[in-house]
Amino acid sequence: MAFDKIFLNARFDGGARHHIAVKDGLIAALLPADAPAGGAETIDLGNALVVAGFVEGHIHLDTSFYGDAWRPHKPCANGFNVHERVAFQAENMAEAAPMDVRARNQLDLCIGNGSMQMRSHVMVDGSVGLKSLETILRVREEYKSFIDIQLVAFPQSGILTSPGTPQLLDEAIGLGANLVGGLDPASFDRDVEKHLDVVFGVAEKHGVDVDIHLHDMGTLGAFEIEQIAARTRALGMQGHVAISHAYGLGDITLDQLKSVADILARSGVAIMTNAPGARAFPPILILRSAGVTVFSGNDNIRDSWWPYGDGDMLRRATTLGYRSGFNTDEELRVAFDVVTVSGARALRLEGYGLHVGAQADFVTLNAEHVPEAVVAVPQGRAVYKAGMLVARDGRMVGKRP
Ligand SMILES: Nc1ccnc(=O)[nH]1
């Protein structure tokens, strides 16, 4: 077979060495490291560790200030409160740089670090209508050869409490959003059933997946998770639903957690956590051992919610591991799996990985193996999308949108 490109001297986690042959943007063959490589353009990877591109599973492209003026964080009056944070965000957005500029800044950052698959929530509600979605859809189009982006129509101001939102969510899918979101059905909209009627109604009507923000803690959060899981099973949507944050899974008893984990696994509902600051968060190993897909994302990067986040899913793996008390190689590989393979499963990506037939989306790392990469977060990466160099040393290269 004639190849377009052959990437020489790639080292895989576990020690296997290959030349990666690429044809039409896909991995066409993994050639033995001593195979002669002629007849195609060759790129020598110099025995760098090669890993599949990172999956940024939860980000907000519309509300970050990254690359804009620094905006000091404003604390809530009495600890974390979603209503207050949403109000601060509206104040901040009124004076922020244009959304497309901020979204590009954030995409350059993420791609520079090696993310080539992304799920972004974009506000769609009575406060902003479809304006933010229209902007982010344009930016997605500009970046389509650099990163694959799923967009969630996200009712940040509530569904029942923000007039017009059910209709807007419906229209958002017609415009090009890929999933429908939700927000704390109990504490925000104060009606779990009616909130989920809208979310799953849009999902059923359009055949799209669901990804719901759930900050509610404790047994209230666990109850909502059970309701979401029941809806998922009733509609046969196993594998098509995710709950983001699910903080409550981190502060219920172990018995309650095991019971909810079983329900999540049976219902095929994935959990997204970014291992947030000093908050309870979902216990990764317990969920995984029950069969739940756990994935991750940076979530907020320099926005009204918090000042942290650097668009680097490898550093996110460090954070996940650090906060989870992961130390063994096996555990460090779990943290890495959360930002790669599990992310791909949650996002239902086709052609993800380093096998023959997969998209040639990969990152080179200066590390001995994955466990070392997770703790060292090496810089000096090269990022290839469909076999094309898109970033080196943290910066995008070549044709910029
Ligand atoms: N963590 C969050 C970021 C943005 N919006 C939310 O509701 N939550």
Automatic annotation (TrEMBL):
Keywords: Hydrolase, Metal-binding. Transmembrane segments: none annotated. It comes from Bradyrhizobium manausense. Pfam families: Amidohydro_3. This is Cytosine deaminase. GO terms for molecular function: cytosine deaminase activity; metal ion binding. The lineage of its organism: Bacteria, Pseudomonadati, Pseudomonadota, Alphaproteobacteria, Hyphomicrobiales. InterPro entries: Amidohydro_3 (IPR013108), Metal-dep_hydrolase_composite (IPR011059), Metal_Hydrolase (IPR032466), Metallo-hydrolase_Enzymes (IPR052349). PANTHER family: BLL3847 PROTEIN (PTHR32027:SF9), CYTOSINE DEAMINASE (PTHR32027). The keyword Metal-binding applies. The keyword Acyltransferase does not apply. Its EC number is 3.5.4.1. Residues 41-390 form the Amidohydrolase domain.
